[in-house]
Amino acid sequence: MKILFLGSSHFSKIVLEEMLNCNLNVCAVVTTPDKEMGRGHKVQANEVKLFAEEKGLQVFCTNKIKNDTEKIKKIDYDISVVASFGQILPKDFLEDRLCLNVHPSILPKYRGPSPIQNTILNGDKTTAVTIMKVGQRVDSGDIALQEEVRLLGDEYYCDLETKLALVGARLIAKAVNMLEDNALTFSPQNEREATYVKKFEKQDGLLDFSQTKEDLYNKTRALSETLGVYFFFKKQKIKVFKLLPNNQTLTEFQIANDKKHFLIGCKNGSVEILSLLSPSGKKQSGADFLNGFKPQGEFVDEVH
Q1: Per residue in 168-213, pLDDT tens?
Q2: pLDDT single digits (tens) 234-287
Q3: 159: three-class secondary structure by DSSP
Q4: For residues 267 and 279, what is the distance between their CA atoms, to the nearest angstrom?
Q5: How far is the C-alpha of 272 from the C-alpha of 243, rounded, in Å?
Q6: Which of 149, 229, 256, 272 has its CA 20 to 30 A from that of 35?
Q7: 240: phi then psi, degrees, rounded to nearest 5
Q8: Is the pLDDT of residue 42 over 90?
Q9: Bridge-partner residues for 265, per DSSP?
Q10: Confidence of residue 303 (pLDDT cuts 50, 70, 90)
Q11: What is the DSSP letter of 179?
Q12: In what helix (H) or strand (E) does residue 37 lie, and over which residues does it extend?
């Protein structure tokens, strides 16, 4: 069975790579065009395109798939698989041939663009990968397969993303085998249980030390590796890479300096800043940052 793959993110690339490892016949890839990236605004291809070209796959790039549907439909494929493509698929494309989606949540929970972040942010103990038929409304299609994934509670975004992408690719392989045997069935989602999650913005990464240590830990695990999390100290932005909950009781926003541990007080104790990016642009441990700034009983900024 010839598969047309649509994706444009790191999650997509992992799914695609594992699909090939599962010996699925991916005949072509649809992704987004090259774009300017980084401070130098250098035009670069996304990693899905780079990987697909490396594997000798046909690649079709489009900014708006609705404008290129007729061209894409001419590709010789039997079904399409979409994983984090980032574009709404037009009705005529979906009606032409079966399109399956790899979605990293236990649908109908966490429909939308940020299911993995919200799973971590909310401290969920379990999540899932869902294979569904793509419908016109976001992540609302009928479910074919779903596999539960338990969380350890200390996963950061990238680790969980990789884990779920690998599960998703293996589920797609199972779905394709069932489809070839005419054994793949679909069940509608329970609309009453549906929840939607938004795309996060940069301001969502601000650490609010009036929250609990658990909330601050979850936010850092969910957002630090993608969006970035941060606080302000003396009106300077401090980007945080990793932190841990701590039981030492401090006043909210208060800094404790014992020269070894960078602790900041919060609602129910404190958190230890393990690694950060200083205002100078240097990545360093929390302890090294303290030894440079030497705050004594000071507070991080509550509002910037």
Answers
A1: 999 999 999 999 999 999 999 999 999 999 999 999 999 999 999 9
A2: 899 999 999 999 999 999 999 997 778 999 999 999 999 999 998 888 999 999
A3: helix
A4: 26
A5: 5
A6: 229
A7: -105, 135
A8: no
A9: 270
A10: low
A11: H
A12: strand 35-37
Q: What is the reported pLDDT for 92?
A: 93
Phi/psi at 196 (nearest 5 deg)? -120, 145
Using the predicted structure, report yes or no on whether residue 39 has a pLDDT greater than 70: no
Which domains, ranges and CATH numbers included, belong to the chain? 2-193 (3.40.50.170), 202-293 (3.10.25.10)
DSSP, collapsed to helix, strand or coil, labels residue 128 as strand
**Distance linking the first and last C-alpha atoms of the chain:** 56
- CA separation for the pair 228, 161 (Å, rounded): 16
Whole-number Å distance between alpha carbons of 81 and 214: 37
Helical H segments across the chain, by residue range: 10-21, 47-54, 69-73, 91-96, 115-121, 157-180, 213-223, 286-293
CA–CA dist 281, 303 (Å, integer):
22
Interval 50-60 mean pLDDT:
97
Q: Are 141 and 101 in contact (CB under 8 A)?
A: yes
Q: Are 240 and 220 in contact (CB under 8 A)?
A: yes
Single-letter code of the amino acid located at 25 = N
- The residue to which tokens 């800094």 are assigned: 255
Token pair, residue 60, equals 């079709």
Q: Rg of the Cα trace of the chain? A: 22
pLDDT at residue 38, as a whole number: 65
Instruction: Give the integer Cα–Cα distance in Å for 91 and 121.
Output: 33
Residues 6+ apart with CB under 8 A from 61: 30, 31, 32, 33, 34, 49
Q: Which of 183, 146, 179 is nearest to 80 (CA)?
A: 179
Calpha distance 13→34 (Å, rounded): 15
Helix axes 47-54, 10-21, angle to 10 degrees: 20
